[in-house]
Amino acid sequence: MRTAVLLMISAAACAAQQYMPDGRMMFPADYREWIYLSSGLGMTYDKSMNMGEPSFDNVFVNRAAYNSFLHTGTWPDKTVMVLEIRSSLSRGSINQGGHFEDELQGVEVHVKDGKWAFYEFGKAQAPAKIVPQTASCYSCHEKSGVVDTTFVQFYPTLLKLAKEKGTVKEGGER
Ligand code: HEC
Fold first, then answer.
1. Ligand 1 site residues, Cβ closer than 6 angstroms
2. CA–CA dist 104, 82 (Å, integer)
3. How far apart are CA 80 and CA 155, in angstroms?
4. Buried (b) or exposed (e) across 105-137, using 16+ Cβ within 10 A?
5. Whose CA is nearest to atom 22 of ligand 1?
6. pLDDT tens-digit profile of 106-165?
7. Under 8 Å between Cβ of 42 and 149
8. Is 158 exposed, middle or buried (0-12, 13-18, 19+ CB in 10 A)?
9. Ligand 1 pocket test: which of 46, 140, 146, 150 has the largest number of ligand atoms within 8 Å of its C-beta?
10. pTM higher than 0.85 for the full model?
11. Could you give the CA distance from residue 142 to residue 131 in angstroms, rounded to a whole number?
């Protein structure tokens, strides 16, 4: 009994996601030490929104979930994925073309804890309430994410693996 309790405590201490007593998720402060999956530059899902300097988004996942994905081609419970959004600049220092990353704009999180949930953190990185299930986050990810509700079609190192494991949804090619 005592061992079981201790195991539960140590598992909670290692979990990539931590919650406040009221259910808000705490900012996963060490996500930059997780596994880097990919970056999108100026990705937009709405043609009318394509204006101004493009933003970068950088995607990270906690190491335990990544290791599990390597064996199964899909995400285990307790997966935490982070989408870090940064503005871009094109002129600075010696740079004359292309874009490089600048200020942090926000951090979005996709967590599988029993079921999948989304959280949005602003620049203040205060604990965040769950995004309501009616939000478009859930419907777009459900409809267009090719592995479970995630966008593995845009994470090149994982896509190949998921195809080999047969976990890509039917019609889920790029
Ligand atoms: C219209 C479709 C669409 C909607 C709506 C949407 N996303 Fe996404 N999301 C994407 C795409 C496409 C990617 C892949 C980004 C990349 O390749 O860099 C993504 C990736 C992510 C990721 C990285 C992990 C993953 O699941 O692949 C997170 C976290 C995320 N989105 C959070 C959110 C949140 C929070 C909302 C709602 C506030 C939201 N998204 C709404 C399309 C969408």
1. 38, 40, 43, 45, 57, 59, 81, 83, 108-110, 118, 120, 131, 135-137, 140-141, 145, 150-151, 154
2. 13
3. 15
4. eebbbbbbeeebbbbebeeeeeebeebeeeeeb
5. 83
6. 999 999 999 999 999 998 999 999 999 999 999 999 999 999 999 999 999 999 999 999
7. no
8. buried
9. 140
10. yes
11. 15
Q: Which residues contact 111 (CB under 8 A, 6 or more apart)?
A: 17, 25, 79, 80, 81, 117, 118, 119
Nearest-CA neighbor of 16 among 52, 65, 50, 67?
65
Give the Å distances, CA to CA, from 103 to 84, 89, 94.
Answer: 11, 9, 19
How many beta carbons lie within 10 A of that of residue 173, not counting itself? Answer: 10
The dihedral over CA atoms of 149, 150, 154, 156, expressed in degrees to the nearest 10, equals -120
Tell me the two tokens of residue 165.
């494991």
| 40 Cβ neighbours under 8 A, 6+ residues apart | 56, 57, 59, 154
* pLDDT tens per residue, range 80-116: 999 999 999 999 999 999 999 999 999 999 999 999 9
Nearest-CA residue for atom 32 of ligand 1: 108
> How far is C-alpha 23 from the geometric centre of its chain's CA atoms?
20
Six-digit token string for 150? 């995630």
Q: What's the rounded Cα separation, in Å, for the pair 26 and 42?
A: 28
